[in-house]
Specification:
It is a single chain. With about 500 residues, the protein is of the alpha/beta class. It contains 15 helices and 20 strands. It has a 7-stranded mixed sheet, sandwiched between helices. The structure holds nicotinamide-adenine-dinucleotide. The site of nicotinamide-adenine-dinucleotide has 33 residues, from helix 7 and helix 8. The site of nicotinamide-adenine-dinucleotide (NAD) has 33 residues, from helix 7 and helix 8.
């Protein structure tokens, strides 16, 4: 970064093989936050090869579980030490408010702590095959070389959901952060090195998806690809992986319904519908972008949302007065603006936002005002597609069955929220929704101990929880006959 080498391959930091670099832009003011090395396809192959050699040497995968657990605990200590510095880097890179970045780092600490504890608990399984001379056991082994690819909205958080279980399982890995937001991952890898991650176990390259990402995934030496990002990229990666029969987990987008019944608590519902969609300017895979509200309260509810949305303080994430930051880049804002134009042309009724903020102090950043469209329906692309910006669409329903039908009427299935004071109805609706996480009278919370992932086109595989560790393990059945004797099948005479 800024002249320091940023690629870590086999324990050695180096520049890109062709000397290429990329400027990382601070979206709050358009300034250059840092210049980093831009890895090439050759660098990708070098990194995978280093991870392969380290894995095949056998020392790291055979490291006692207690040692790997202690390593993760040391990473936790260093993350605690560097928390504020890492949060600032994340804000500089993504634009999100410092408060949000601090929460990210706390969550990252929880993930490393969780896997540090879990890895010692997950045990092998003994099976009674009905013969006392046979020991049949099922053991878990590290899956091997992992390629870890992360998006830009939660750069280090998403990467930590991969690195922590991969280290816990005894895998070797190549991490590729988004080319838009690599800074926190570079800082983290330096920290992991300080914690004592052995050479070649955690390799780091950053650069474009089209060149670097493609070279990392199209490589027969890779055993597992864990990808978080958009649907189109996920499809591409799954196809490439299929060619090599490489295991792949893809965590993709969402178009998440937030269903509000008329009997829901008013104040927390208004508050959480707003937070659920406008936090981090809507650049959240699980953002509650589709409000599905009971008709009898819809007019009043939407009026209150619009009123409060107009008051949300958009600004530089480093300014404590800001409640939400900019979009990640000019290019991304252009996409969001195109969606707003589309919503208007589709006939949705704009009731809040719909423009850039007028404050001249924000003119050089990629800011956009919280935007609400009322009177939407499922025929509109603005309701069907992931906009990944501060846009809330409103649909109305009359019956519980309608609410469920609308909530499931999406090709995605990442997350959903339900708000009602009727506990029995709440339980019925959450069970009927086809989404990987469903919040009842809450929105956006998660824990390292519970699995995260999507139904339908929101992806496959799970991160976090015990399943998030199992993704990085192979299962082996060992049949040990302690008293071998001939099977006597073939007599040969
Ligand atoms: P993206 O798909 O454009 O990029 C994600 C990563 O993939 C980046 O590191 C990129 O460089 C890399 N990449 C791009 N093309 C590639 C290729 N051909 N081969 C290999 N790698 C390639 O996504 P993004 O714009 O960075 O992130 C936003 C998306 O991520 C949204 O759709 C959001 O919903 C999703 N997301 C999902 C979750 C989840 O948990 N399901 C979490 C966060 C973000």
């Amino acid at each position: 970064m800024n002249g320091e080498p940023d690629l870590l391959v086999g324990g050695t930091w180096s520049h890109a093989s062709d000397g290429g670099t990329r400027e990382i832009i601070n979206p709050a003011d358009g300034s250059v936050a840092a210049t980093v090395d831009e890895a090439t396809a050759d660098d990708a192959r070098r990194a995978v090869s280093a991870a392969r050699t380290t894995f095949d040497a056998g020392t790291w995968p055979a490291t006692p579980v207690a040692e790997r657990s202690a390593l993760l605990a040391r990473i936790v200590d260093l993350l605690e030490r560097d928390k504020e510095a890492l949060a600032r880097v994340e804000t500089l890179d993504t634009g999100k408010t410092l408060v949000e970045s601090r929460i990210d780092i706390d969550d990252i600490i929880s993930v490393f702590r969780f896997y540090s504890q879990l890895v010692g608990v997950e045990a092998d399984r003994l099976i009674d095959v009905g013969d006392p001379t046979v020991i049949s056991r099922v053991v878990r082994e590290p899956i091997g070389v992992c390629v870890l690819i992360a998006p830009w909205n939660y750069p280090l958080l998403q990467m930590s959901w991969k690195i922590a279980p991969a280290l816990a399982a005894g895998c070797t890995m190549v991490a590729k952060p988004s080319e838009v937001t690599p800074l926190s991952t570079i800082a983290f890898v330096r920290l992991a090195e300080e914690a004592g991650v052995p050479d070649g176990v955690l390799n780091l390259v950053q650069g474009s998806g089209a060149v670097l990402g493609a070279a990392l995934t199209d490589n027969p030496d890779v055993d597992f690809i864990s990808f978080t990002g958009g649907l189109a990229t996920g499809r591409t990666i799954a196809k490439v992986a299929a060619e090599h029969v490489t295991k792949v987990a893809v965590e993709l987008g969402g178009k998440n319904p937030h269903i509000v019944f008329a009997d829901a608590d008013w104040e927390s519902s208004v508050d959480q519908v707003l937070t659920g969609v406008f936090l981090h300017s809507g650049q959240v895979c699980s953002a509650g972008t589709r409000l599905i509200v009971e008709d009898s309260i819809a007019d009043d509810f939407v009026a209150e949302l619009a009123n409060r949305a107009e008051k949300i303080r958009v600004g530089n994430g480093l300014d404590p007065a800001s409640e939400t930051g900019p979009l990640v880049s000019e290019q991304h804002r252009a996409k969001v603006e195109a969606f707003v134009e589309l919503g208007i042309s589709e006939g949705a009724k704009l009731v809040a936002g719909g423009t850039r903020p007028s404050d001249p102090a924000l003119a050089s950043g990629s800011f956009y005002r919280p935007t609400i469209f009322d009177r939407c329906d499922r025929s509109m692309r603005i309701v069907a597609e992931e906009t990944f910006g501060p846009i809330l669409t409103v649909e109305r329903f009359e019956t519980e069955a309608d609410a469920i039908r609308l909530g499931n009427d999406t090709e995605y299935g990442l997350a959903a929220g339900v708000r009602t004071s009727d506990a029995a109805r709440g339980e019925r609706v959450v069970r009927a929704l086809r989404h990987g996480t469903v919040w009842l009278n809450d929105f956006g919370y998660y824990t390292a101990a519970a699995e995260w992932g999507g139904f339908k086109k929101s992806g496959n595989g799970r991160e976090l929880g015990p399943t998030g560790l199992a993704e990085y393990q192979e299962i082996k059945h060992i049949w040990h006959n302690t008293a071998p004797k001939p099977a006597g099948w073939f007599k040969g005479d």
